[in-house]
Design goal:
- The chain is built from 23 helices and no strands.
- By secondary structure, the chain is mostly helical.
- The protein has a domain of 97 residues: Alpha Horseshoe (Serine Threonine Protein Phosphatase 5, Tetratricopeptide repeat), CATH 1.25.40.
- Helix 18 packs parallel to helix 20.
- The longest helix has 20 residues.
- The radius of gyration is 29 Å and the shape is elongated.
């Protein structure tokens, strides 16, 4: 009987101790505090708790995984990658860890590794919608290198929509991927659905406006850009794109007003200078146009295709001023930056024509056509060159 009483006392003491400390180690207590802080949106404070948990128990894999998440939330992606690697080495095999590692790779411009991370996350959890979305984004970030990545991005977005058909943001992303493939009606269809699901999306109206603009439907484009600006007056691309549509419709003062508004929002954006330069060019103020194109070139746009367009624009302005050799130099600079810059060949053809170098002009026109440039507009400018009337028709057969 005495032994039974002693046993009960021991059990009650143990129960009291377990309740008092929660039945967990000090490392786990610090870990739990970190989780609570992270859930409250305090990643830096959470990191401090995870640091202490790991100091107390260097083998606590969950602490590395969670600290990786917190580092990612705080923008410390390299540290996040180190923690995810450590968690995996300690035996953590969860979709969330591989997903987090994929996100960290994506945010450090390591898209190939990001795709691998998302693939592994999806192997562990095929229903993880965000992994399909991020996988698609990673592929799309590589589409400028290989168009097949745009198609693989679409596969990821398709799967995400299959699992969650009510997320407007995924339709916007899928529309963006279709722009890279030039499937403009699919772009519009996806954005129609995105706008139906989330009517207040400035991005959806912006991208749909871009699609309408590409299809030459400038009134519809302007209506979408108007709505994007109404929803977010700081949407600089809406002003720039609307400026382009106004130019196409011959509404030069409106185009200039939009370019100036974009300049007020961000004078450090190269696209602002290109838009305003084109408006100056249409107003006949070629010197100011060239000055703006000069400024745009100084900002060194992020891709060869975009960078080359600034040289094409400045070359056109030089040609119209009669500085034909400077025009050719700019257009050849555009070709060097981007060998597939069809617009540069079309414009150099005009410059060669002005110099009477007819055979070289015809070769450039043929090359522009091969690259898919619509040279009908250029042809209209060339009516003074009688050889072109016949040759242009022959090349378009």
């Amino acid at each position: 009987m005495k032994a039974m009483i002693l046993a009960l006392l021991l059990l009650s003491t143990l129960a009291f101790w377990l309740i008092g400390c929660g039945g967990i180690s000090k490392a786990e207590q610090r870990y739990n505090t970190g989780v609570e802080l992270q859930q409250k949106g305090q990643p830096e404070a959470a990191i401090n708790e995870y640091n202490e948990a790991i100091r107390l128990d260097p083998k606590l894999a969950d602490a590395y995984a969670r600290r990786g998440d917190a580092y990612g939330e705080a923008g410390h992606y390299q540290r996040a990658l180190q923690d995810y690697d450590e968690a995996i080495q300690l035996g953590t095999q969860t979709a969330s860890v591989y997903y987090g590692r994929g996100v960290a790779y994506l945010n450090t411009d390591q898209s190939d590794q990001a795709v691998e991370g998302f693939n592994e996350a999806l192997r562990l959890d095929p229903q993880l919608v965000d992994a399909y979305v991020k996988q698609g984004i990673a592929h799309y970030s590589m589409a400028y290198l290989d168009k097949s990545h745009a198609e693989m991005a679409l596969e990821g977005f398709d799967q995400a929509i299959r699992l969650d058909p009510n997320r407007a943001d995924i339709y916007v992303l899928r529309a963006d991927a279709y722009t890279h493939l030039g499937q403009w009606q699919k772009v519009i269809d996806n954005l129609n659905e995105a706008i139906r699901l989330r009517p207040g999306s400035a991005d959806a109206h912006l991208i749909r406006g871009d699609a309408y603009q590409t299809l030459g439907q400038h009134q519809e484009a302007i209506a979408d850009f108007d709505e994007a600006i109404r929803l977010n007056p700081q949407t600089i691309l809406a002003y720039i794109f609307r400026s382009q549509s106004h130019l196409k419709l011959g509404q030069v003062p409106q185009a200039m007003a939009d370019a100036e508004q974009a300049f007020q929002i961000n004078p450090q954006n190269w696209m602002v200078y290109k838009a305003r330069g084109l408006a100056y060019e249409q107003l006949g103020d070629l010197e100011k146009a060239i000055a703006d194109f000069d400024q745009g070139i100084q900002f060194n746009p992020p891709s060869a295709a975009l960078f080359s367009l600034l040289y094409v624009s400045r070359g056109d302005a030089y040609r119209r001023l009669g500085h034909t050799q400077k025009a050719i130099e700019d257009l050849e600079a555009a070709m060097k930056i981007n060998p597939n810059a069809g617009e540069a060949y079309a414009s150099r053809a005009l410059a060669y024509g002005a110099l009477g170098r007819d055979e070289e002009a015809k070769q450039d026109l043929a090359r522009a056509l091969e690259l898919g440039v619509d040279t009908s507009g250029a042809a209209k400018k060339w009516w003074d060159f009688t050889f072109l009337k016949h040759d242009f028709e022959e090349l378009n057969k």
